[in-house]
Amino acid sequence: MAVEKKLLPSILNADFWNLGELVEAALEGGADGLHMDVMDGLFVPNLTFGPSVVEAVARRTETFVDSHLMIEEPARYAAAFVSAGSNAVSVHWEAERHLHRTLTAIREKGALAGVVINPATPVSVLEEVLPFTDFVLVMSVNPGFGGQKFIPTALKKVEKLKNLLAKLGLEDRVAVEVDGGIKLDNVEDVLRAGADWIVVGSAIFSSPDPRQVRDNAARFKEKLLKFA
Ligand code: DX5
Ligand code: ZN
Q1: Contact between residue 147 and residue 106 where contact means Cβ atoms under 8 Å apart
Q2: What's the per-residue H, E or C state across 149-206?
Q3: What is the mean pLDDT of residues 204-227?
């Protein structure tokens, strides 16, 4: 049974004054969950939020919460993000020396465990960890900010990853997520390359108007459904 497609709006660029209303609008538009960009100012040159914001969102919505930890030594906080209500927690391959242990700890805590690779990190480094992961997040921008330009080499990496998963017999169990610079004019390329979970930030939350956010989400969802 193939991995199901998910549209996961990133709240990073949302108008935080109005976050609840905008999150509800994105869900009304067809989002399959929310992507929470956690940043520590060390692994990436930006600082966002901790488990409390994830908890505020998870508590008020029944939706799938996908926490992307762009932090050094993510093992220190991974469990806290699961306890806060994350259904999926991803850690960067570049930031975690004990990946098998940390992914296993996330799974034991009850969430899906994911590993993230930056644009210059090859898919090949993942071969040994894929049997212990539930999803792989392929970054199509350098992590740290929303509103950046899509890095097209990510498409080949998604294809390489899908081939590697098929070689290992994991293609029906491990989801491939792509994150960064995804717009209406490139999302079909990302899906055609084999992506299952699509993260979209500024292209959905660019407006503070909930109706616009809902419509933005609906337009991406329409494209995803063509590949379902
Ligand atoms: C970047 C984050 C992405 C980003 C996506 O470090 O991981 O999730 O917020 O935003 P857009 O879609 O605007 O690139
Ligand atoms: Zn992200």
Answers
A1: no
A2: CCCCHHHHHHHHHHHHHHHCCCCCCCEEEEECCCCCCCHHHHHHHCCCEEEECHHHHC
A3: 97
Beta bridge partners of 199: 8, 179
- The strand ranges marked E within 74-134 are 88-92, 112-117
For the chain, list the domains and their CATH numbers. 6-225 (3.20.20.70)
pTM confidence score: 0.98
Residues whose CB falls within 8 Å of the CB of residue 109, separated by 6 or more in sequence, listed in order: 78, 79, 82, 83
Question: CA nearest 104: which of 128, 83, 133, 127?
Answer: 133
- Position 1 scores a pLDDT of 67
Per the annotation, the verdict on 172 as an active-site residue is: no
Pocket flag, ligand 1, residue 9 (CB < 6 Å): no
Can you tell me whether residue 116 is helix, strand or coil?
strand
- Residues 199-223 have a mean pLDDT of 98
Separation CA 19–CA 206 (nearest Å): 13
124-155 confidence digits (pLDDT tens): 999 999 999 999 999 999 999 999 999 999 99
For the Cβ of 12 lying below 6 angstroms from any atom of ligand 1, the answer is yes
Q: Which residue has the tokens 């806290």?
A: 80
* Ligand nearest to the Cα of 183, by number: 1
Start-to-end C-alpha separation, the chain:
12
Instruction: Copy the structure tokens of residue 54.
Output: 């994830």
Closest CA to 43 of 193, 127, 144: 144
pLDDT digits over 84-103, tens only?
A: 999 999 999 999 999 999 99
Is 189 marked active-site?
A: no
